[in-house]
Design brief:
alpha/beta; 11 strands; six-stranded parallel sheet; three-stranded parallel sheet; Rossmann fold; 294 residues; 40% helix; binds nicotinamide-adenine-dinucleotide; globular
């Protein structure tokens, strides 16, 4: 039987409706929710991404402001900007658009964001709290992955999960979430000796590497749930021999889908849900600031 397609777009639409109601409630009881995105440099992709964020924020009733800093911004100036947003009581959420120009220290800037306003869940404090299963705000992509697994209907407790890719912001938080939910988890990475041997043991296979079609049919056990986090732009020839650019994941979808129980498409899987989780985190952050203790 062909795999169930885990439609991230449809789930994201449901979550946007929920968030819209929550924002309206918050507005009538406590005031506005306001998201500030900091963009350093004149990166067109970054501005485009910010424009998309603005549209989505406005749809759910969240105020949005883009703070643009010049390419030559120093670390100290970036820190000052983040500190200003941290203490601004009207700002309830902060996003730092990546990548930063090469001369800036990304981790130091993320560390500077108030954990209660860190709607992307990238502050090391928030990532560290995952170990205690008590993040103030959890990383959006990892939340999107666990939400998709939950909606796939697979039981996580006792399942064998394999997470390919162990970045601090995606793979490791996903590994930690799955461990907390009592899966037995194997973390694979560039130094894993026999990837096929590891991935074919998976009931749940999560791939977050950034290599198009890394995972083929030989990597997937029949009946597994496959979550593809990868986003890769590739150039291909279409049927008429024309060169086209398209977005693909880390999983060879056409080869793997007939064998899996459920699978996420790329685009339209984890990506839209990550954005929806950002909106959910934005409300969550505003709520938590009401009764913060530190
Ligand atoms: P990263 O480059 O920080 O980490 C890549 C990881 O993959 C590392 O742990 C590395 O050891 C591992 N790896 C590299 N080659 C490998 C191989 N051949 N076999 C096994 N492991 C290998 O990447 P990241 O920031 O975690 O992003 C991963 C992918 O996810 C990218 O395509 C990125 O665009 C995408 N992404 C998607 C979303 C979303 O919302 N859908 C969000 C964030 C990242």
């Amino acid at each position: 039987m062909p795999a169930r397609i885990l439609d991230g777009k449809a789930y994201a639409a449901e979550i946007r409706h929920e968030v819209t109601r929550q924002v309206a409630w918050f507005h009538s009881h406590h005031g506005q929710i306001k998201l500030c995105a900091v963009l350093v440099g004149s990166d067109d992709a970054g501005r485009l991404y910010a424009e998309r964020q603005r549209k989505l924020a406005i749809v759910v009733g969240v105020q949005y402001e883009l703070v643009e800093l010049p390419e030559a911004t120093t670390q100290e100036e970036l820190t000052t900007t983040i500190d200003r947003l941290n203490v601004d009581r009207l700002v309830t959420g902060i996003i730092l658009q990546l990548p930063l120009p090469a001369h800036l220290d990304t981790a130091a800037a993320q560390y500077r964001i108030d954990p209660y306003k860190d709607v992307e869940g990238v502050n090391p404090a928030n990532i560290g709290w995952l170990f205690y299963d008590e993040p103030i705000i959890a990383p959006c992509t990892a939340l999107a992955v666990t939400e998709l697994i939950r909606r796939s209907g697979v039981t996580v407790r006792g399942a064998h999960a394999v997470v390919v890719g162990q970045s601090r912001i995606v793979g490791r938080p996903v590994t930690m979430f799955l461990l907390t939910q009592m899966a037995t988890v194997t973390g694979c990475h560039i130094a894993t000796r026999d990837l096929v041997a590891e991935t074919t043991r998976a009931d749940i296979l999560v791939v977050a590497v950034g290599k198009p079609h890394l995972i083929g049919i030989e990597h997937v056990r029949p009946g597994a749930v496959v979550i593809d986090v990868g986003i890769n732009r590739v150039t291909e020839q279409d049927a008429a021999g024309k060169t086209v650019r398209r977005t693909v994941g880390d999983v060879d979808f056409d080869a793997v889908a007939p064998n899996a129980a459920a699978i996420t498409p790329v685009p339209g899987g984890v990506g839209p849900l990550t954005v929806a989780m950002l909106l959910r985190n934005t409300v969550e952050a505003a709520r938590k600031q009401l009764d913060r203790k530190i």
